[in-house]
Amino acid sequence: MSGIEELPLRPELRGRTPYGAPQVPATHRLNTNENPHPLPAELLADLGAALGSAALELNRYPDRDAVALRTDLAVYLSRTSGTQVVPEQVWAANGSNEVLQQILQAFGGAGRTALGFTPSYSMHPIISAGTGTAWVDGHRRADFTIDAAAAAEQIREVDPAVVFVTSPNNPTGTAVALETIEALYAATTGVLVVDEAYTEFARTGTASALTLLPGRPRLIVSRTMSKAFGMAGLRLGYLAADPAVVDALQLVRLPYHLSSLTQAAARTALAHTDALLATVDAVKAQRDRIVDALPALGLTSVPSDANFVLFGHFADAPAAWQALLDRGVLVRDVGLPGWLRVTAGTTAETDAFLTALGEIAPDHR
Ligand code: PMP
């Protein structure tokens, strides 16, 4: 047996570790921002039937262009954003991670640079590395907001081919104002990707970048069914952009990348959109409950528009993480000194989290 270092691995991948939250057993798993609510019974019944009929055709390749699914996604986006989105503007893949990878394959690559505002979703630099795209860290203020003027200046200097903005941001929960997104778009000659994985959890008044699509052919808004829809296991991510962007992605997508089972399941889930999204308000209520409970424990949080809360400050965040785990509560240490991230889930999960936090807070602040 030989080690990875003896293989002729690409030099930029040497010494790297694969992405992944620790999958440690815990009573309360509040570390990967999933929706803990069970899927509605009517959806489960319909899924059985839909997958059954799709299975009858498994000897055939799926619809390579996933037209029916993209049509359903366009209807959902139009209905919820108030902006008309047509199927030609929509593209879907196996999770938004694959969507992001296809964007980098088409618009990044050797000799090109991607820029994103760290701390943010750690897969953005990882997928950049995987596609041979150089990475530059964009600046955020100490309160994790983006200074639009400074960011635009940095973009003009670096001239990246791909700019990432995550709104609401992971791991901080911070939403990005549309004026900031407009300023970043105006500053770049590359594509601007707004990663809106958590947008359905945004507080009232926080608008989606979908409204900025008209007249901005290099703007891409990426979404997922993994979070608010509670379908992380389905692996269905999608984007909305100018139809020319969707045409460009055809050059790099693998033929038949979305299985017919995935397409059937996603369409069935979308037919139950209202029932699925009914849990969003309950999750938001738990998020706000966590935020409100922190000051009494001598702790604070970053304002969150997502289904998670970045909370602190801890003298030693890894030690606080372990102390919570010892009490059965698994949260995420995102590597930000003093901070930990917790997913907002059910009332019972919040109860368990706040009880454990109350026990450990005095020793770890
Ligand atoms: N974007 C952000 C900001 C995320 O946090 C995640 C998941 N953690 C993703 C994209 C990827 O989600 P998926 O591939 O499940 O759609």
Automatic annotation (TrEMBL):
Residues 30-357 form the Aminotransferase class I/classII large domain. The keyword Transmembrane helix does not apply. The modification N6-(pyridoxal phosphate)lysine is found at residue 227. InterPro entries: Aminotrans_II_pyridoxalP_BS, Aminotransferase_I/II_large, HisP_aminotrans, PyrdxlP-dep_Trfase, PyrdxlP-dep_Trfase_major, PyrdxlP-dep_Trfase_small. This is Histidinol-phosphate aminotransferase. Pathway: Amino-acid biosynthesis; L-histidine biosynthesis; L-histidine from 5-phospho-alpha-D-ribose 1-diphosphate: step 7/9. The gene is hisC. GO terms for molecular function: histidinol-phosphate transaminase activity; pyridoxal phosphate binding.
